[in-house]
Amino acid sequence: MGKFLPGMAALLMLLLLVSYSHSDTTLISPKPEAVQEWMESHSQPNAKQKITKLRFYFHDVVSGKNPTSVTVAQWNSSATTPTLFGLVNVMDDPLTEGPRRDSKLVGWARGMYTSASIENLGLLMTLSFVFRDEHGSTITVVGHNQILNKYREMPVVGGSGLYRLARGLVTARTVWLNVTTKDAVVEYNAVLLHY
User: Left, alpha or beta for 182 (phi > 0: left; psi -120 to 50: alpha)?
Assistant: First the structure.
């Protein structure tokens, strides 16, 4: 009785799916007219992909009274390893038009980064760039960020709003880094294919 049988796993998955299909999902469902409009515009044989290029600046503040990135987990020895292996930060970093913090706010980088490399300082970035537009547009990035390299590339794995079904890449370049506080400003350039 102590073993979990494969048939039980299938049964539990089926029960989960059935209970989900009968739950009220109106709180997370998009407006029906928006979904219908999108489906009609993208089911046409002449629907074309667009290419969009964006540039914005990411302000990662880990110090002071109002940090935008906080450590939520770490391995017992993370602080003593040269790569901070095992450190996990959650962020809600502002995105601006220019490199200065008082530049126009265009959105936020919301997600997490994890020090996921033993041999070099490399972060696993899992985040959405959430833009301040009337469409609630987002770009989702999941990738490896070797932060000591001058330029880094990470894949765009999705998007919403103006960037529905986005794929492409972002490049990152550190503009400013305070080695004491670990606060940083990073320039991001995105090249997107989307509908």
Answer: left
What are the structural domain ranges in the chain?
A: 6-41, 48-194
- Residue 27: DSSP 8-state: T
Q: Identify the CATH homologous superfamily for domain 48-194.
A: Allene oxide cyclase-like (2.40.480.10)
CA-CA distance, 115 to 77, in Å (whole number)?
12
Strand, helix or coil for residue 188: strand
* Nearest C-alpha neighbor of 101 from the set 56, 70, 134: 56
Q: What pTM was estimated for this model as a whole?
A: 0.75
Nearest to 164, CA basis, from 45, 57, 41: 41
Dist. CA 139–CA 134, nearest whole Å: 15
Q: What is the pLDDT of residues 136-178, one digit of tens each?
A: 999 999 999 999 999 999 999 999 999 999 999 999 999 999 9
Q: Which residue has the tokens 């299938």?
A: 10
Q: Which residues contact 127 (CB under 8 A, 6 or more apart)?
A: 91, 109, 110, 111, 112, 113, 140, 141, 142
Q: For tokens 């490896």, what's the residue?
A: 144
